[in-house]
Design brief:
By secondary structure, the chain is an alpha+beta fold. It has a single domain, classed as Elongation Factor Tu (Ef-tu), domain 3 (Beta Barrel). Helices cover 18% and strands 31% of the residues. The protein has helices spanning 15-19, 32-38, 84-100; strands spanning 8-10, 13-14, 21-23, 71-81, 113-117, 122-136, 146-156. The protein has a 7-stranded antiparallel β-sheet with strand order 2-1-5-6-7-4-3. The two termini are 31 Å apart. The mean pLDDT is 93.
């Protein structure tokens, strides 16, 4: 599956080469990962005043510079390995990387996940919030390919747009 090499990097590391992980869709034909990454964040509200005696709300004649809210991004990852032992090792390393930004070689991270998506030409700075769903696709059997899917929620405090 060389086609997956360097399509997605986290903290400069190819997630496929180091963890057997890659972005996967929930259903064939979906584009939910890219839709999540490319969806513009919500705007921070403007400060306004609402008087009971008047219709609507009052805002300044010239609005201040618009700013985005922080946002949560949900991505679907698949984890695949040729056997149970490799898969368990990759799974442990992948979860540690999500948690703290730790590198595949065990080098400690700063907690940030710098997610580079080659096809989009963009890098996002996020941190891990939770895994909201885990699905074991194949059994954890010795001598057989093992695969699972994780629905991961990441937080982007300062959206990169």
């Amino acid at each position: 599956m060389k086609v997956l090499n360097n399509l997605l990097k986290i903290n400069g590391q190819c997630v496929y080469q180091n963890y057997g992980a890659f972005l996967v869709e929930e259903r064939q034909g979906d584009l939910s990962n890219y839709e999540e990454l490319l969806k513009p964040p919500a705007m921070k509200p403007y400060t306004s005043v609402s008087f009971r005696e008047e219709d609507g709300e009052k805002l300044p004649e010239r609005l201040p510079s618009p700013c985005f809210e922080a946002r949560d991004v949900t991505l679907y990852f698949a984890l695949v390995a040729e056997n149970k032992q490799s898969w368990m090792s990759n799974y442990d390393k992948f979860v540690r990387m999500l948690k703290s930004g730790e590198k595949a070689n065990g080098e400690k991270g700063d907690g940030w996940l710098r997610i580079e998506v080659a096809e989009l030409g963009k890098t996002y700075k996020m941190y891990y919030k939770q895994c909201s769903q885990y699905s074991q696709i194949t059994p954890l059997e010795d001598g057989k390919t093992v695969a699972a899917k994780l629905k991961v929620v990441l937080r982007e405090p300062n959206p990169a747009v």
